[in-house]
Amino acid sequence: MPDDQPTDSAADGLTRLRAIMRALRDPETGCPWDIEQDFASIAPYTIEEAYEVADAIERAAWDDLRGELGDLLLQVVFHAQIADDHGLFGFDDVANAISDKMVARHPHVFGDESRDKSAEQQTRDWEAVKAAERAAAAETGTLDGVALGLPALMRAVKLQKRAARVGFDWPESGQVLDKLVEEARELREANMSRHIEEEFGDLLFVMANLARHMKVDPEAALRRANAKFTRRFERIEALLAAQGRTPAESDLAEMDALWNRAKAEEKSA
Asked: Which residues form the NTP pyrophosphohydrolase MazG-like domain (predicted)?
């Protein structure tokens, strides 16, 4: 067991968590599963925990949010410990790097610039600072630095935002809607599986662009649509169960009618 005592609840929260992770990763006395992990094996859990944080916020489940934020924090500590074990960097390096970045990107708070700016101006300033950081990192292309590992829908929006900064964008959402109709027509006309996937991807990409123009977060919109579908389908199951039946013992026409009933009930609630 390392000198620090990870089971000591009197220690401050972050110190205790880091001590626990060091103990779990100890080559001689740690947990075999934790010792075997690397960046790649942990990355899917990191993404999953971030989505569970978003889910708790969506549900306004604040007790759940506390736990989910802890799960996400564990992921950061885990990655930092793996890096430390390999002599790459440590947790303090991670914390200091983001602290330096936040100070540099907020000169109106930590520097001499005036705080008397609109939110829009602050956003423009933020983007200018990020552009300078990308240039310093030799990211000269407009789309450089948009992470490949992002969910595809989120990455589509980020790519489109980057292109829009240099003028490659439709000025109005109506033009995006026209493009949406065009892509839907091309999908209908596609008759080869390879082309179907390509045209479907084009349609999704335009939908992401439309969301950006309408200032809608497509990930959040789809999460809410998923939640609505789940809620209404569960109501269909409940109505059928009251008759001693399951959806498999029903048909589309009946379930569609029950769907409309569930929809009407929600609107009248």
From this structure: 37-110, 177-233
pLDDT at 1 over 90: no
pLDDT value at residue 147: 84
Give the C-alpha separation, 225 to 219, whole Å. Answer: 10
For 13-103, CATH number? 1.10.287.1080
> How far is residue 73's CA from residue 64's CA, in Å, rounded to a whole number?
14
Please provide the average confidence, as pLDDT, over all residues in the chain.
Answer: 89
User: Any idea which fold 141-216 has?
Assistant: Helix Hairpins (1.10.287)
User: Of 57, 94, 38, 16, nearest to 219 (Cα)?
Assistant: 57
Name the residue ranges covered by the structural domains of the chain: 13-103, 141-216, 220-268
Tokens of 249: 């013992």
How many other CB atoms are found less than 10 A from the CB of residue 164? Answer: 15
The pLDDT of residue 118 is 76
Helix axes 152-165, 218-241, angle to 10 degrees: 150
Cα distance between residue 207 and residue 155, in whole Å: 13
